[in-house]
Amino acid sequence: MIKAQYNKTWLWFYSSYFRILQKIYFRKISVITSDVFPEGQSVLLLQNHFSYYDGYWSMYLCNKIFRRRFHVMMLEEELAKRMFLTRCGVFSVRKNSRELLESLNYANELLQDQMNVVTIYPSGEIISHHAQNFPFQQGFTRIAGNRDNHSIIAFAVVLVDHFSLARPEIRIYLKNYSGERTAEAIENEYHSFYDVCIRKQTE
Predict the structure, then answer these.
(1) 0.90 exceeded by the pTM?
(2) Which of 30, 37, 81, 34 is nearest to 57 (CA)?
(3) pLDDT digit string (tens) for 60-93?
(4) CB-based contacts of 20: which residues, under 8 Å, 6+ apart?
């Protein structure tokens, strides 16, 4: 697997570049939540994956809400084409291989540090944000269900709408999950939260 080589300078450059793109292509970013994410715990962030910009939305949450270091799991074949991303906190996973377990263990190691956020896209691939009930890749339970993992589990649902304007608005709905740490419970609750977000988006 390819591990993250965290570098503050590269992270600043990357986030600055996307802030410029944000101002050009998007009208507004709103984070919608009433939950609190206390300090002193790492964060496992489960987020929908539908666009090129998803890593930036994850980074935005790390900077604006969680105030912790950004890390995200990315398919190895994609990361190998963009190795500079390792310096921003990106590490690899190779599905259906022996290296999968190594990547999951590495994610668990990162979560032992209370100053880290680890983002996982449980769909395992880019899918439309209109697809609400996508199946979760089962590997994530080795992280969320790990007995040594005392991190916060956060749900993020990112939705985009133009409404009556030319540039779209990004709304990030955020939830602090407090239920059972089983694959079924987490997946069901995430999908229920997604349904709630869709209803709020269309109100």
Answers:
(1) yes
(2) 30
(3) 999 999 999 999 999 999 999 999 999 999 999 9
(4) none
